[in-house]
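Protocol step 4 of 5: obtain the predicted structure for the target chain.
Materials: sequence only (see below). No template structures provided, no constraints applied. The aim of this step is simply to have a reference model before the mutagenesis design in step 5. Sequence pasted as it appears in the construct record:
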Amino acid sequence: MDKFPEFTLENQNGVTVSNEDLKGKTVIYFYPKDNTPGCTTQACDLRDNMDFLNDLGVTVYGVSGDSKKKHQNFIEKQGLNFDLLVDEDFKLAESLDVYRMKKVFGKESKGIVRTTFVVDENSNILKRYDNVKAKEHMDSLKEFLQEV
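Step 4 output (structure tokens):
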């Protein structure tokens, strides 16, 4: 079983989050940018399913290269009920191979490819979702989390 790499990142309020904060099951999802259509859809789906996730003892963290200020703004604007972590240098994203060349509207550039990890308290990766489709993601995530 693959291990989630050691990490220490700040959340939107400057509070440090690391592997030691992983309790039970944790959903750590990487997304390109705050306040963009796909990222907003995905974040709001997670927000709207938080009771379900909490009942299963699941914690959620979103990760992008945006600043604390942008994260605070996104959380406030969308009423998000989970922390967003700041990976401005993309070190964690790169270590998981989710920061790479991609095509957006026909233009190639480097960025975060939408990816989700389900991790246990020992940093074991229970499931990895690559090239996540924002609209369909919650259904497959719910199905998996009910099984483990």
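Step 4 remarks: Helices lie at 37-48, 50-55, 68-78, 91-95, 137-147. Strands lie at 8-11, 16-18, 25-30, 58-64, 83-86, 99-104, 107-112, 115-119, 125-129.
Proceed to step 5.
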